[in-house]
Amino acid sequence: MKKVYTCFCTDVIHEGHLNIIGEARKYGDVYVGVLTDEAMIRFNRFPVVSFRERIDMVKKLDGVKAVIVQDEIMYDKAIAEIKPDYVIHGDNWLNGPMKAIRDNVQKLLSAYGGKIIDVPYTYNENVKRTDARIKEKLSMPEYRRKRLKQLLTLCPIVKTIEVHSGLTGLIAEKTIVEHDGEFSQFDAMWISSLCDSTAKGKPDIELVDMTSRFRTIDDVMEVTTKPIIFDGDTGGLTEHFVYTVRSLERMGVSAVIIEDKTGLKKNSLFGVDVEQTQDSIEHFCEKITAGKNVQLTDDFMIIARIESLILERGMRDALDRAFAYVKAGADGIMIHSRKKDPSEILEFCDAFRKSDKTTPIVVVPSSFNTVTEKELSEHGVNIVIYANQLTRSAYPAMEQTAKDILKYHRAHEVDSRLMPIKDIISLIEEL
Length: 431
Ligand code: SPV
Ligand code: MG
Fold this sequence. Notes:
The chain is of the alpha/beta class. Helix content is 44%, strand content 17%. It folds into three domains: 3-129, Rossmann fold; 141-387, TIM Barrel; 393-427, no CATH class.
């Protein structure tokens, strides 16, 4: 009997999958690969059913000879193990990022005379509805809120990008790239105080009020499913912070990061060029503990941000604060720096990890942007936040367009740089 292999990256079996199995059976015994959670989140979306359940679901299907675990999106190991005569897949992998997978399969099969079978991809009303239902589930507060904690157990480093609107949310949600056979996408979103304020033409001094910040969260949540980390600035008065925690938790936000400053907050990237006051360890610990005490679920995280390096108070102060904040209940710490060289951040992480192996570390490499995710992860960092790059790339592009329209007294000269009208109107999915 010939062997036919296919890989399913799904939490629900619909007629498209059954069609593939039906076709595959015509050629021989059917072997199905099931992607692990780790592989699935890199390539597709977060699974809504457990890995074990996905395996059982596929095992039960009529006509499946055996199920194997595929722990990478590329088929190398599976093909080496099974040596299939055929690999069958929907023809949606002929284009887009998935083409790299097909090309790799083609190369692997051609080494011993195996063949690819492309079957027409099934995308009818039923499949569309099933897909929409999964997305809806992923966006529900109770599913979204706990996702950051789940990601921390699954990813070497949780990649987070700043969003401040529905549109930037869509970029965070949908952008996926394939590079050298690896698929990459963002895991989470950061609602930056800097960019949320900037989008409103306001300074980053806790001027944009919480109601307005919540409105931004809502805009993002309406069109996305990925987890959200909220920049809570100083958290404000402890008496106010407890209400913020409750609201964020109810909305389905996964974490709030509060920084240990007090009084009029200025953006950290100003450093000591402006007057900024660091909170006392005791007072900031009280704020953290008060926040933890009002939480209703185990999912929500309060992450304490240490400003000692920004305010040039030294490494010892930063570490003392980190340990105190964890003791006060912080679920994670963020260490910030405005140096171009990442060495002080890495030194902090190494020193912290000597005594604390588990508390998640968050970093924001805006200034020390030469450091790679791999290096950060090797020094114990768990979450990396790209905190302002979307805003900083969009603004100059818009400004240049405005200047050129003024210069040429028409829009023709800028048109080649713009997204086609057809694309912008189809960017937003209709329900
Ligand atoms: C933000 O994005 O608002 C931050 C990070 O707080 S930073 O601007 O670097 O302080
Ligand atoms: Mg901020």
